[in-house]
Design goal:
Helix content: 40-55%
Number of helices: 3
Radius of gyration: 13 Å
Number of strands: 4
Strand order of the largest sheet: 1-2-3-4
Oligomer: single chain
Structural class: alpha+beta
Order of helices and strands: EHHHEEE
Length: 99
Amino acid sequence: MELNLTLKNHCIETGIKKQSEQLIKKYFKKNITDDKKSIIEVQIDALKFILEHADFQKLRHNYPELCDNDETPVKIIIPDNYFKIIIMCYNQKISPPWK
């Protein structure tokens, strides 16, 4: 599963928080199917995991392109094991450092 986000005027951590908020709003819309709700639940759970376990200070230090750049495209690849989540930025695979 993959999630796309854009870092415009904020860092990766804020981008993930914003994406999570958007998914929660989408989840509670009237016309959403149960299948889509299931997918959104996994996405929200994965983003929550990243927010709770990733060391964003190290991540921003090691990858300045994840800090407040102008519309940096980012893709988060979500496997079954969340500790193996990959952040793709400019075709670079980044494994988040964990706390």
